[in-house]
Structure formats: C-alpha cells, structure tokens
Design brief:
There is one protein chain. This protein has about 375 residues and is an alpha/beta fold. Helices cover about 40% and strands about 10% of the residues. It has 15 helices and ten strands. An eight-stranded parallel sheet has the order 3-4-5-6-7-8-9-10. α12 links the parallel β8 and β9. It is globular and about 60 Å long.
Length: about 375
C-alpha cells in the first residue's frame, strides 16, 4: 500500500484531530526515510555502507541467567587471569559457564570495541548492524554507539524490537501488541531511551522453541510496524529445524514481508543442504552469523553439532549454486568477551581476514562475495 489511508482504510472525519496528526506525522517520517539507511548518526545513502556484517553486538546487557550454564565437573578451577592462555581452551569450549566472560558492558569491553572497530575500518570494513533489541539493550546503548561510530568512522545501525521471553522483565512481558508496536515506532522514528538516536532495523526479534506467547506478540507487532514503515527486520529463531517456518507463518499472517527480513543463525538451525535450499525458496534473507566459532560442542543444544567455518562456506556455496546468492548475509554474532581480539578471540574482522580467502579457494566469484558483503545487506537495510 502507498499510504496509511489505503492500508487501514482510514476515514479521517471519524477520528480525533490528535490521532490524525499522529498518523500524518508517522506517514511523513516514513516517506522521508524512503531510499535511505538509518544509522545511529542519522540517515545515509545506501551506497556508503560498504562491507556490512548484519548480526553483531557492540554492547549488550543480557541478563546473565539467560545463557548461564553449570560448569562441567571435569573442569578445574581457573588459575589466575581467566583470559590467560592456560584458561583460554576452557573458555572457548564452555563460554557460557563463566559470568566474567558474558558481562558485555564493562570498561574492558568498551575499550576493546574501539580497538576492534578501528581495525575493522582499516581492513576495509564499512558497517556493523548492532542487534540491540529490548532485553539486550544496555542503558547507555545510544550514547556508546554514537561515540563509537564518530571515533572510528564505522557506520553503526542499531535495532529495536524484543528479544526472547527469558530476557524480559515482567512489565515488558505484560505489554500488549499495541504497546510493543508503539515502542518500536518510537525507536525507529523518534529515538531510543529519550535520545534522538534512531534505530535502523527491528531486531533481533527473539524466538524460542516452542514459540512463547510473548514471542508471538513480538512477531505480530514487528510485522505491523514493518508494514507501516517498510523497515528491515531480523529474527533469532528457536533451536529447532521447525522454528523458522513457524515464525514466518505468524509473521506473514500479521503482514510481515519476507523479502525485507533476515532469518539468523541458520547454521545451527538447519543442518542439511536440502533444508537450507528449501528454506531459502521462501524468499527471506538467509544469515550465517556464527563465523569464528570452531568448537563443535554447542552448549545451548548439545544435540546439535556446531559446524566449522569450512562447513559454513560449503553450505553457502550450495545456496549460491541453487540460485540464492542474492539472499545471503553473514556475520559473527560476537556477544562474549572471549571472541574479542583483546581477550584472545578472532574479532570482528575475522571474516575479512580469514573467511574470504577460504571462500575464494572454494569457488566463490568476486561477484558472489560482493553480493554477500555489500549488495545484499544494502538492499535489506534500505527503507522502501
């Protein structure tokens, strides 16, 4: 639909002046964003994004209990610095057993992030999508991200929406669909948490398996706001192969557009090439976003074998061969300290430095790589 009047068949004579003004303001804001990408420093021309990773975390305040796992009995206590070489193997194998690894707002993380983004920019990186939905978002998310972007020259796009049920306070869980939609509109069109820093994407929209009632409301409200604003959406599926399809059923019934939507974490959700190709045929963007994790043990679902980077590359190449090269986006989904370079990890530049050479050796053309890193993210992130 071209206008809200057509979308909702609004009869302006039957509504109050105040509501009419709000609707017209909303439509005007949406029209002004058409053809642009919203960064934390303001709207930009999509052609300025460059190399873009679509699923990262530059700061988050996720409650520790959401991902916390008990320490296996065979692991000895840490000796000295948890991030020393003698302990790094345990951190990589069991990252969610150590709260110190999962605190992602302290000063050490903030300093490391500045170093990471400078390095990313030096290597040709252009844009990071920070998936900062409610439940993940730190109290000073807006201030930190704007400062980071100004200092490093990296475009930062941050998200609204709602993460999984277990990350939410009771007051958030009690919100109605209308309230959730209103929160997203405010974040997208006015600014987050009392600032003028606007979100450029809805996400990550957190879903579990089976889908919780709150998460169903979250999907519906996200679809409503996407239909109104023509903004991009990115979704975190539950850890089951049936989850992405169920999510899209709910999302589409509420008016969501798959062609403007990314489904995250597919390498830990769909495990055969056939399943991946069948899902890709639905029309959304397919995201492989755990690059850099080379440990097969997956703490969040031990029935799943986490693939290696080589297997990720192989599966992506299969999607390209099946004709889905224009529906692929990638990232690292870094959200723990041990994956940052300062703490012995691969960092946000891992794809550029280590994965791209592997892709070239495995048959990816330069055009394939350009689509995945530049063209596809640009198209997805541009408001229509």
């Amino acid at each position: 639909m071209d206008t809200f009047t057509e979308m909702y068949k609004i009869n302006y004579k039957s509504i109050s002046l105040n509501i009419m003004v709000k609707l017209l303001e909303l439509e005007s804001c949406c029209r002004s964003m058409a053809g642009k990408v919203q960064t934390v420093l303001g709207p930009v021309n999509p052609d300025t994004l460059g190399v873009t990773f679509t699923h990262e975390h530059l700061l988050h305040e996720l409650p520790l209990e959401v991902f916390r796992h008990p320490l296996p009995g065979n692991i000895p206590p840490f000796q000295g610095d948890p991030f020393s070489l003698q302990n790094l193997g345990w951190l990589r194998q069991y990252p969610y057993c150590f709260d110190i690894n999962n605190i992602y707002t302290d000063e050490s993380v903030r300093k490391a992030m500045v170093e990471e983004m400078h390095f990313f920019k030096t290597l040709g990186g252009g844009t990071i999508v920070d998936n900062g939905s409610v439940g993940l978002r730190a109290k000073d998310q807006a201030q930190f991200l704007t400062s980071l972007s100004k200092e490093t020259g990296v475009n930062v796009i941050t998200g609204t929406g709602f993460y999984v049920t277990f990350a939410q306070t009771q007051s958030v869980l009690n919100m109605k669909v209308e309230d959730m939609a209103a929160k997203m509109r405010e974040d997208l069109l006015v600014g987050i948490d009392g600032t003028d820093v606007k979100c450029g994407v809805i996400g990550e929209v957190g879903c579990s398996w089976p889908l919780a009632d709150f998460e169903r409301k979250s999907l519906i409200s996200s679809a409503i706001v996407q239909a109104e604003t023509h903004c991009p959406v990115i979704i975190h599926p539950g850890r089951d192969k049936k989850s992405p399809e169920e999510i899209f059923r709910v999302f589409q019934e509420a008016g969501g557009k798959l062609e403007k939507t990314v489904m995250s974490h597919l390498e830990r959700t769909l495990h055969t090439k056939e399943d991946l190709a069948e899902f890709a045929s639905m029309g959304s963007y397919c995201e492989f976003d755990l690059f850099g994790i080379e440990v097969s043990h997956y703490q969040h679902n031990e029935d799943i074998d986490m693939p290696s980077d080589a297997q990720r590359v192989e599966r992506l190449y299969h999607l390209i061969q099946q004709g889905f090269g224009d529906r692929i986006v990638i990232g690292h989904d870094i959200h723990t300290k041990h994956r940052l370079m300062k703490f012995g990890g691969h960092g946000f530049s891992h794809i550029i430095t280590n994965v791209l050479p592997k892709m070239r050796k495995r048959g990816f053309s330069e055009n394939d790589i350009k689509k995945i890193l530049i063209d596809n993210p640009k198209k997805w992130l541009t408001f229509e």
